[in-house]
Amino acid sequence: MTDRAAIRAEAARLRAVFEAEGAQPVETTVLQPAEVLLDLYGEDMRARAYVTSDALRGEQMLRPDFTVPVVQMHMAHGAEPACYTYSGEVFRRQEDDPDRANEYMQVGFELFDRAAPEAADARVFCIIFNALEPLGLRAATGDIGLLMAAVGGLRTTEARKKALLRHIWRPRRFRALMDRYSGRVPVPESRAALLAKAEPMAEAGPMIGLRSEAEILSRIKALQEDAQVAPISDDEVALIDAILAVRETSDNALERLRDIAVDMGAIQPAVDRLARRLEAMAGRGLDITKLDFEASYGRTNMEYYDGFVFGFYAEKRPDLPPVATGGRYDALTRQLGRGREIPAVGGVVRPGLVVDLGGLS
């Protein structure tokens, strides 16, 4: 077992690095209101978090991360621009992998700034890159905003776009929807038979479950309307696939995405943001010709990110989770801001893994 004192010392060292970059130290409570997190992530969050009940405060969760409470704090009374740092334990269920820790330390850096989002992305990434450079980690980067822009530009209904956007972070479900909306897979016979009925509920049995008859009828109506929509074209599906297949060094990825944007103009603004971000990184001394970019990166474990995403990995220790992760989460500030929003980007480091890899001292 790793020495907890060594982990805390490493956390203090990393936090000092972030403070030297202008970050204000902040604290958050270990118990967080479950309602906020469930509203953000849905009931699936229960399977990944430790939930308890309080007679006065209702359901509470042991803190699964720091970003949500720090965003809430900033949106309530933070000045602009602002950056924060923090450290402490977070708690995650690991039922699929009992060998992974369910309680571990995080140290983070969060930046809220309206002025130049791409420069802010570069600043956060390069601060963490430089802090971890002695470990020789592989840095992976991506941009969820590219796929979101591509979906937004599809020639299909808003309902289909919303469904696809909702499942961007669930690649298998996203692919199943794309196959269905493009007509690549047939409608199941049972669904087709149901939708063909003039009175779909006529032969229904007794109502069981939480959904009302009105909700069921509304869902059937939505499916009936969707069945009349023309399929997404093969060309658009191919362009989506081409975006998801981009996996190059950042300079080459940018050129490939510029080529795709010729045929899918909806992604051009996102490609331009990527170009400005890489320029800002290069301006900070980073060699972008050696920086990996994967257009599909971050789609399985970064649910609140909606733009730039990154992670740092120990290639010689594939058994370890990422040593650091982060990205842009503008939409989260909008959800928690009660009418306000601000561009925001941040990252977290796991000091326990830094210690496991030999430390930075």
From TrEMBL:
Q: Which UniProt keywords apply?
A: Glycosyltransferase, Transferase
Return any one Pfam family short name: tRNA-synt_His
Q: Name one GO molecular function term.
A: histidine-tRNA ligase activity
Name the SUPFAM superfamilies for this protein.
Class II aaRS and biotin synthetases
Which ranges does the record mark as transmembrane?
none
GO CC terms of this entry: cytoplasm
User: Class II Histidinyl-tRNA synthetase (HisRS)-like catalytic core domain: from which residue to which, for each copy?
Assistant: 6-169, 222-347
Task: List residues binding L-histidine.
Answer: 65-67, 92, 106, 110, 304-305
GO BP, one example? histidyl-tRNA aminoacylation
Per its UniProt record, what InterPro entries does this chain match?
A: aa-tRNA-synth_II/BPL/LPL, HisRS-like_core, HisRS/HisZ
Q: Which domain of life is it from?
A: Bacteria
NCBIfam families hit by this protein: PRK12295.1-5
Under PANTHER family, the record lists: HISTIDINE--TRNA LIGASE, MITOCHONDRIAL-RELATED, HISTIDYL-TRNA SYNTHETASE
> What protein does this entry describe?
ATP phosphoribosyltransferase regulatory subunit
- Gene source species: Roseovarius litoreus
What lineage is on file? Bacteria, Pseudomonadati, Pseudomonadota, Alphaproteobacteria, Rhodobacterales
